[in-house]
Write a structure and sequence with these properties.
This protein is mainly alpha-helical and about 500 residues long. The chain has 20 helices and three strands. The protein folds into two domains: about 140 residues, no CATH class; about 325 residues, Neurolysin, domain 3 (Orthogonal Bundle), CATH 1.10.1370.30. The protein has a three-stranded mixed β-sheet with strand order 1-3-2, with helices on both faces. The longest helix has 28 residues. Keywords: Carboxypeptidase, Hydrolase, Metal-binding, Metalloprotease, Protease.
Length: about 500
């Protein structure tokens, strides 16, 4: 075997073990007994120690030094393995193990604190998570910006300054559009109660409608919807609310965007660095275009309206146009995952600034709740009423995902570019969606982007698929056109 062959064989085993670790995380969020949290932390720490040892094995460096790529895909494999190896070598094994143990335990603490509306119960473990992640970031940054080093895990070759510049370009138009929309009469929302078992039946139909292969996946319930896994085992979760079925349906469509991306990657890349999405920003471009540009379009909501009438009977919405307005209702609210398209990115900007300050030491964990509440009231014009609507609403910080939040908005920006290209590529898109047929859209996304996995760098894969350099302009134009028409601006 050549050095390249030996390296790839070793890499497949390492990736397989990391998939097992991911399955432990899925289990923890869905069916694990509450009393198992401490033991699960030890289990996660143990497997992380094994993974860190494999990823930092000196043989990896030797193989990289002697490996010759057989083709373009091989060169990309070496690029990604080298990048991961260099980062792994900077993080002490004991630190990686401690982070795995503490974040596993912190996840359970966060869930209970959120249920109890008790910020004080969460802050001690969050302080520990932040301290560990800052230590890791400092090791990775090698004297550079700690937060930049964290972003690199989720959006390679992107800095906080670059993201900040994009956000500053977006903010004025978003704030202006929001103000004009909220000055108009608000569209009616859904009212009444919607049987949660029937919600799950319909949400399974939606998952299949958007191309999710349930022979290689699962759909379960969790506190916070997420997608987990890759290749032939990609699992998603959703959640139900008795009075808000949109929460269930659009969470599902969003996670299906992530899951089908993973399922549609070229099978030749299975259990290799290329066998996963190019970045979290690119991943979010798929979940957001599924959820919003496709799932909340006038054409598709017309079909969904019929499905809801068949499932729930009459539910107070007169016709498909009123249902479209309800699905795209611009409204005040505290929850990021329930925010309308216009305001969603403002929620991300808040989190981006706060976590950047935490990582740079400009904000202390003990002051986080007050900082969140002050910023939220400044940005949205009303107060946070309880912690689960404020700094306890998201799971991300409890599990150490600092640098992840900005990729949601990068995904929206990427989705705006892709949607312009999709409309050109599938001229009869609206007619297809009106019939509940997403195959034209999902097939184009599969062929133009998803099948490549990690073959190309994030911005390159968006440029190849959309034909343009990533820019917020298409997203902002789409939002102004769509909501301007909806609200008669």
């Amino acid at each position: 075997m050549t050095a390249y062959d030996e390296l790839m064989a070793y890499q497949r085993e390492t990736t397989a073990l990391s998939m097992i670790a991911g399955r432990l995380g899925w289990d923890q969020e869905t069916v694990m007994p509450r009393g198992a949290a401490s033991q699960r932390g030890e289990e996660m720490a143990a497997i992380e120690a094994v993974l860190h040892a494999r990823r930092s094995d000196p043989r990896v460096g030797d193989w990289l030094a002697g490996a010759e790529a057989p083709d373009q895909a091989g060169a990309a494999q070496l690029r990604e393995i080298r990048r991961a190896y260099d980062r792994t070598m900077k993080v002490p094994a004991d630190l990686a193990k401690r982070i795995a143990r503490v974040t596993s335990e912190a996840q359970g603490t966060w869930a209970q604190a959120r249920a109890d509306e008790d910020v004080a119960a969460f802050l001690p473990v969050l302080e520990e998570v932040v301290a560990l992640k800052r230590e890791e970031g400092a090791a990775l940054a090698s004297g550079g910006d700690v937060y930049d080093a964290m972003i690199e895990d989720y959006e390679p070759h992107t800095t906080a300054a670059q993201i900040g510049a994009i956000f500053e370009a977006m903010r004025p138009r978003l704030v202006d559009l929001r103000a004009r929309l909220l000055a108009q009469p608000m569209s009616a929302g859904l009212e009444g109660e919607f049987d949660e078992a029937k919600q799950m039946e319909l949400t399974h139909l939606l998952a299949r409608t958007f191309g999710y292969d349930l022979d290689r996946g699962r759909l379960d319930k969790a506190v916070h919807p997420f997608s987990s896994g890759s290749g032939n085992d990609v699992r998603i979760t959703t959640r139900t609310s008795l009075t808000d079925p949109f929460n269930c349906f659009y969470s599902t469509i969003h996670e299906v965007g992530h899951a089908t991306y993973e399922q549609n990657i070229d099978s030749a890349y299975l259990l290799t660095p290329l066998g996963q999405g190019a970045s979290m920003g690119v991943h979010e471009s798929q979940s957001r275009i599924y959820e919003n540009q496709i799932g909340r379009s006038r054409a598709f909501t017309g079909w969904l309206f019929g499905q809801m009438r068949d499932t729930f009977g009459g539910f107070g919405i007169a016709d498909a146009d009123a249902f479209y307005a309800a699905a795209n209702r611009v409204h005040n609210g505290h929850i990021r995952t329930e925010a309308d398209e216009v305001q969603y990115n403002l929620h991300i900007m808040l989190r981006f600034d706060l976590e950047r300050a935490l990582m740079q030491g400009d904000l202390q964990v003990r002051d986080l709740e007050a900082a969140w509440n002050d910023r939220f009231e400044d940005d949205f014009g009303y107060a946070v009423d309880r912690p689960s609507n404020g700094c306890l609403q998201d799971v991300h910080w409890s599990v150490g995902l600092f640098g992840y939040f900005p990729t949601y908005s990068l995904g929206n920006v990427y989705a705006g570019c892709l949607y312009e290209a999709l409309r050109r590529a599938v001229p009869d898109l609206d007619a297809q969606l009106a019939a509940g047929d997403t195959s034209g859209a999902t097939a184009w996304l599969r062929d133009a982007l998803q099948r490549f996995g990690g073959l190309y760098a994030p911005r390159d894969v968006i440029k190849r698929a959309s034909g343009m350099e990533p820019s917020p302009e298409p997203l902002l134009n789409y939002l102004e056109s769509k909501f301007g028409a909806l609200y008669g601006l």
